[in-house]
Amino acid sequence: MEKENCWEYKECGREPGGANVEHLGVCPAAEEGIGEGINSGKHSGRICWAVTGTFCGGEIQGTYAQKEITCLDCPFFITVEQEEGADFELLLPGQTTEVKED
């Protein structure tokens, strides 16, 4: 069984070629980047909580540290964590949970 990426699970239409891209744009988790293959996902589709600027709930989200509490309660996050078991990865390579102030 193929594991779903966030845009498939949430049916948001924010993936390249998706139904909502024209008026909402492509979600950063669905773009090519450093998340490829993490938690068995395409692009950052199974580590979306660690990607800055995702568009959950129709609103732009912040950094991992800013959205951590919301994401830890997300049904998709819980699904990925359960599916990956001991291989589950919480953060992108080199990423920390610290909030940097400008």
Distance between the termini: 44 Å
**Helix content bin:** 25-40%
Number of strands: 0
Would you list the SSEs in sequence order as H and E?
HHHH
In DSSP terms, counting alpha (H) and pi (I) runs of 4 or more, how many helices?
A: 4
Features:
single chain; 102 residues; mainly alpha; 27% helix
Description:
This protein is mostly helical and 102 residues long. It has one domain. 27% of the residues lie in helices and 0% in strands. It has 4 helices and no strands. The chain is globular, with a radius of gyration of 13 Å.
How would the blueprint of this fold be written?
Blueprint: H1 6-10, H2 21-24, H3 64-72, H4 75-84
Question: What's this entry about, in short?
Answer:
With 102 residues, the protein is an all-alpha fold.
